[in-house]
Fold:
Amino acid sequence: MASETNEKVLAMYRAVRELLEEGVNPEQIKVSDVTGRAGIGKGTAYEYFRSKEELIMRAINYDFRVQYEKLKGTIRESGNFRSAMYSVFDWIENCAGRKRVMAQILDMPRLKTRNEEKNVKCPAEMMDRSLVREVISDMVQIGVQEGCIHGGISRRLMELEVFGRCMQYFVYLISRTEKNNDEIQETKDFIYDSMIKSL
Structure:
């Protein structure tokens, strides 16, 4: 397993992210593309990864975890439930802004390792779902402590409502045809106010 404190590994992860952001199809990325951009020799990649596919998947997973850690910090420092929710909206907006990368990741078929016997896990299988649960749980806790979220429903239903509203905003962003900042703000306010009424 690659060490995520190793500078060469981190440089390869950054190179993969840059290539994806430029719109390169993950299946067309070559190890030499990654190592060349990272400034290391091609053979070095195989010191840390069994295959190109493992390198790409681990790079995607690492980037996902880094972004979630930043989000968790922002939520914990937000001070109130509304600020926490709008921080998540902003984070989702940033992710949707990287729509090309997200579309490639979601459409990426299961890639096989060199010997074709074992599958390299797809990004959704590698991503730590506990991170998502932790972020949602932190938000609900802030809302309960502040009094924005009232009792009467189970904690699980509270978390489901918050998660559902986050997904609602994501779907809105990726389906809109033109960028209108007034409409974006109106949508955030509508989703937030609707959620507060339901909680």
